[in-house]
Write a structure and sequence with these properties.
mainly beta, Lipocalin, ten-stranded antiparallel barrel, about 5% helix
């Protein structure tokens, strides 16, 4: 998503917050919370283009093209409590890698055949933005449960440059697969406050789309712990798993993308 679109989303969130009337907030929630930190996942990225999306045809950008499995991804999240029981959240991160490698097996990508031992350069970029709206209710004084709807925006691009074989004749070529999508999400959330300074939380969201030009599923889950040594500033440690499995049938990209992120994250968290 472009910087302009991100600024517009955060501007809308700030405006919505400014229009609310402040009141008592459940112990497990904050009126405003801003998280800045990093996500350190293990990444498994497989993309196929212009070919049947069946087992064995996907190109693994980690295994086949020597992209590193681990990378620290800067991450940001904004949470707002509106009207005392409705919460709005927006978060995002970008994964971007570039590597050069000599192939260990033949691969086909975007209609080009790359022979084993060919030298290739690979690039993979994934931008993600998640937005959600929760309706929170408090079964106890220290717990809140939330259910709601949201949306996930994914912008994916993978490319390979290298030597190819066409009818026994060598040459060079470039293949690319790209696409973006906005998918609705069903969201669930839970917060537990051990005290004003210590909390445990979990968030889950997902959707399955079985028809149209873009099909597949999106699943996200996070479990975390936050501690506030100061009243307005603290830290949060969490573990997240994000699974993206999409099949696309469009002019610019026909194939499949399977990208899985799993790993820990750490944040500095400011609350007001």
């Amino acid at each position: 998503m472009s910087a302009g679109k991100c600024r517009a989303l955060f501007g809308f969130a700030a405006f919505a917050f400014s229009a609310t009337v402040l009141a008592d907030v459940p112990m497990a929630l904050d009126r405003v919370s801003l998280s800045l930190g990093g996500f350190y996942p293990t990444v498994d990225a497989r993309v196929s283009a212009n070919g049947p999306a069946v087992a064995g045809t996907d190109v693994s950008f980690q295994r086949d093209l020597n992209l590193a499995k681990n990378q620290t991804l800067p991450a940001v999240r904004l949470d707002l409590l509106l009207f005392d029981n409705q919460g709005f959240s927006i978060a995002g991160y970008q994964y971007s890698r570039h590597a050069a490698a000599t192939l260990a097996r033949d691969i086909t990508f975007d209609g080009n055949e790359y022979d084993a031992h060919a030298f290739v350069e690979a690039r993979l970029r994934l931008n993600t933005v998640f937005g959600s709206w929760h309706w929170w209710f408090s079964p106890t004084a220290t717990d809140v449960l939330g259910i709601g709807l949201g949306a996930a925006y994914y912008d994916l691009k993978g490319s390979i440059d290298g030597s190819v074989s066409v009818n026994g004749t060598g040459g060079s070529a470039r293949g690319a697969a790209e696409g973006d999508a906005i998918a609705p999400l069903v969201t669930l959330g839970w917060r537990h406050a051990f005290s004003e300074r210590t909390r445990l939380y979990a968030d889950f969201s997902g959707v399955r789309k079985s028809s149209g030009a873009l099909t597949g599923h999106l699943l996200n889950g996070t479990v975390g712990f936050e501690y506030y040594p100061w009243s307005n500033a603290g830290v949060a440690l969490e573990y997240s798993a994000n699974d993206l499995d999409l099949k696309a049938d469009k002019e610019s990209w026909e194939g499949r993308a399977r990208i899985h992120f799993r790993g820990p994250a750490a944040f500095v968290r400011l609350r007001f």
